[in-house]
Amino acid sequence: MTIAAPLPDFTHERVTTVTGARSGLHLTVALHSSAIGPALGGCRLWTYEHWLDGVADAMRLGQAMTMKNALADIGAGGGKAVIALAPGDVLDAARRRDALLDLGDLVESFGGAYITTEDVGVTEHDMLIVRERTQHVVGLPAADGGAGEPAAGTALGVFASIEQVLFAVFGSASVEGRSFVISGLGQVGSRLARRLAEAGAVLTVTDINPSALAIADQLGATWIDAADAVSTPADVFVPAGLGGILTAPVIAQLPVRAVCGPANNPLAERSGADALAARGILYAPDYVVNAGGVIHLALTERGETPETVDARLRGIGGTLAEVLATAEAEGITPLDAADRIALARVAAAR
Ligand SMILES: NC(=O)c1ccc[n+]([C@@H]2O[C@H](COP(=O)([O-])OP(=O)(O)OC[C@H]3O[C@@H](n4cnc5c(N)ncnc54)[C@H](O)[C@@H]3O)[C@@H](O)[C@H]2O)c1
């Protein structure tokens, strides 16, 4: 038996893997912690070499949600679900529906301790099917009374974080005249680019999808090849595509003063945070910066007004300021500082 990803440490309250009664697929819910509140985290539909890789992914992602939700201060614990496809397995509409109903049953078996929503490979419309089997689901389409698309909230939180980063590095939070390289112009990257352009930033942008060139033209941004994103000088590098872009060789020559963007896990390895610090590059931890999505989701579902949600999204800048101050005071990286604050909040809630 070959397992690509070894299982992470078991620090979880409960991990359940089932063979879906309808779909025959392997589904996992990894409830990491409900100390602060019911665990909130999306369901990922993805292809894995081995079903245990799906379990490992759910466990890692669930633990990461505990940290993100603790720092986001939304009264939620952390967990995640995975529907694992075998290589080459393609779902037709009927089997996809079966898989989502199976997910609903699995979520329901947690009795509300885990609340699911969408993640990679799953849409807000899929959540309507999940709701046929459980009430413990959020992020339904706005037209169906749900919180709707979180990308605008995520982009606002990233913008507030960028202002904080600029203040820490340059002594002024103004983005006007500051230069940014944005790698990835999808849901979040395009909205963030628009905000930055409107505030007078100098933008260099890229995406592996050439259709994003139209966004660059609209915003008056300079378009570069995706491969050049990490070698183009700027004040701030904004990772807004997939994770893993900051490898050791990339960090060794990254020509920027700071890294701050929405991408999950932009560091290929955790030690990248130390390497960036050693080069004097400020790294704003991903899960602090991109918490706007969960904040939008949790507060909107709770019935908070758009004004309250907006204020909390802007408040991500304040959370980042606390993280940077802790890092400075303790002589540790911002990533270690964020972990320390999150873990203290979880411990205090136990
Ligand atoms: N959508 C949210 O609210 C949210 C919340 C938290 C975190 N995130 C994270 O932010 C990132 C962006 O999310 P999104 O919703 O905008 O996703 P998306 O799929 O809409 O956009 C990602 C974009 O990045 C591009 N891309 C992929 N690899 C690239 C590369 N190597 N170089 C340049 N471009 C590349 C894609 O073509 C796509 O246009 C992801 O890492 C996501 O996990 C998103």
From TrEMBL:
Keywords: NAD, Oxidoreductase. Gene3D superfamilies: Leucine Dehydrogenase, chain A, domain 1, NAD(P)-binding Rossmann-like Domain. SMART domains: ELFV_dehydrog. InterPro entries: Aminoacid_DH-like_N_sf, Glu/Leu/Phe/Val/Trp_DH, Glu/Leu/Phe/Val/Trp_DH_C, Glu/Leu/Phe/Val/Trp_DH_dimer, Glu/Phe/Leu/Val/Trp_DH_bac/arc, NAD(P)-bd_dom_sf. CDD domains: NAD_bind_Leu_Phe_Val_DH. The keyword Metal-binding does not apply. Residues 148-350 form the Glutamate/phenylalanine/leucine/valine/L-tryptophan dehydrogenase C-terminal domain. It comes from the Bacteria. The keyword NAD applies. Belongs to the Glu/Leu/Phe/Val dehydrogenases family. This is Glu/Leu/Phe/Val dehydrogenase family protein.
